[in-house]
Amino acid sequence: MRIWLLAVMVGFMGLLATGAQKNDETPVLDARAAKVQLERVYEQVHPAAVRIETRPQGTGSGFFISADGLVLTAYHVIEDTERFWVRTADEKRYPAEVVGYDALRDIALIKAKVPGPVPFMELETAKPVRRSESLMTIGNSRGEFIAPRVGTVTNIGRTIRADFPGDLIASTMPLAPGDSGGPVLNTEGKVVAVAVAIGREQQDGQDVPVFQSYATPLLGLNGLIGQIKAGYRRDIPFMGVSLSQLTDDEARAYGLRQGGVVVLDLIEGYPAATSGLQPPRRLSENRVLADLILEVDGKAVQSSDELIAYVRSRQVGDTITLKVLRGSETVTVKITLTAKWRSS
Fold first, then answer.
1. DSSP β-ladder status, 287-289 and 319-326
2. In this structure, are 227 and 262 located in the same domain?
3. Engineered SS bond to 162: which of 42, 57, 124, 305, CB 3.0-4.6 Å?
4. Alpha helix locations (H) across 191-238?
5. Beta-strand pair 233-234/93-102
6. Same domain, yes or no, for 315 and 286?
7. Are residues 273 and 195 in the same domain?
8. Rounded Cα gap, residues 175 and 219, in angstroms
9. Domain tally, the chain
10. Residue 70 and residue 200 in one domain
């Protein structure tokens, strides 16, 4: 069983552009040498790291990427907030506003209203991260302020859950709530990813789930970041429905050879609530009538993860068609996807 926790707490991590040297053939340093190098990197770049403070009360991390106060962070850090501020390494606090975001990748740009130039970090969008590479995040968890967390890359291209970003970097960096949005830096002092999640997962040969931290890589995202700077906003397509997956025994009870997805609840204000889908109804003490989703746009659905992944692959405004089993009746339901709400 996987237990996932977004590394942001209810109540938020940077690289100075100077001093970083290009070397496309840099070897992976051994752990001891990498630790020493990352300590140097931290001393150089931490003035560009920030804490993001939100209302309702919350804390996350971020980092300046330009001298005029642009801050890169994780989208979920500012997703459900009314207002937020950036606190810099010298303990100064500035109001900030959203510039743009890609919610599916869980990255966002905000603009802090700074009075003058600020130190900023350099992004690495061209060189891939490698397994066993040592990395460092700068964050604000455990009551600490702009503190380093060092670890090594354990996996690349991970998808941990259908409703999380895909192609994540997994590592042993000891992140905790409050570190989300922080920069993930290599030994050259460049930001290669943004911290987004923590969790435990079972791995081969392990009796106990292994702690992992996850980050959204910046590889290949130079163009996207440019679009976000210009105000691009990509929301998560959403139906507004709570789902559950049938077990094999439950599927057989429905007379199905394979699984399906049960509609548990409809969220008020979202399109599913007025689409014709129905929540479970108790017909008698031992009998409940529930909508069972069998197909989406003609494709068989065997798990809630499959359905969520398909919906996330579409765009806000797209209409999807569900084939639904309701008792002995098969019905067709159309839902126009809307954006998952974000407080403004």
1. unpaired
2. no
3. 305
4. 222-229
5. parallel
6. yes
7. no
8. 21
9. 2
10. yes
Tell me how crowded residue 339 is: count the other CB atoms within 10 A of its CB: 15
- Please give the Cα distance from 314 to 303 (Å, whole number): 18
CB burial of 131-141 (b: ≥16 within 10 Å; e: otherwise) equals: eebbbbbbbbb
Q: Is 245 found in the same domain as 335?
A: yes
45 sits in which H/E element: helix 31-45
Joined together, the tokens standing for residue 186 give 């290599």
Residue at 138: amino acid letter = I
Count the alpha carbons within 13 Å of 182 in the hemisphere toward its beta carbon: 39
Cβ neighbours of 252 (radius 10 Å): 12
Given a contact cutoff of 8 angstroms between Cβ atoms, the answer to whether 52 and 62 are in contact is yes
The last residue of one of the domains, among 202, 234, 266, is: 234
Give exposure, 88-114, as e/b (b: 16+ Cβ within 10 Å): bbeeeebebebbbbbbbbbbbbbbbeb
The whole model's pTM is what?
A: 0.83
Instruction: Report the Cα–Cα distance between both ends of the chain, in Å, rounded.
Output: 35
pLDDT by residue for the chain (344 residues), tens only, comes to: 223 444 443 332 333 333 333 444 556 677 789 999 999 999 999 999 999 999 988 999 999 999 999 999 999 999 988 899 999 999 999 999 999 999 999 999 999 999 999 999 999 999 999 999 999 999 999 999 999 999 999 999 988 877 788 899 999 999 999 999 999 999 999 999 999 999 876 666 565 566 899 999 999 999 999 999 999 999 999 999 999 887 777 777 766 666 679 999 999 999 999 999 999 888 877 777 889 999 999 999 988 999 999 999 999 999 999 999 998 899 999 999 999 865 43
Domain, as residue range, for 61: 3-234
Q: CA 150 to CA 323: how far, in whole Å?
A: 48
- CATH number, domain of 282, equals 2.30.42.10
| Token pair for 152 | 């090594």
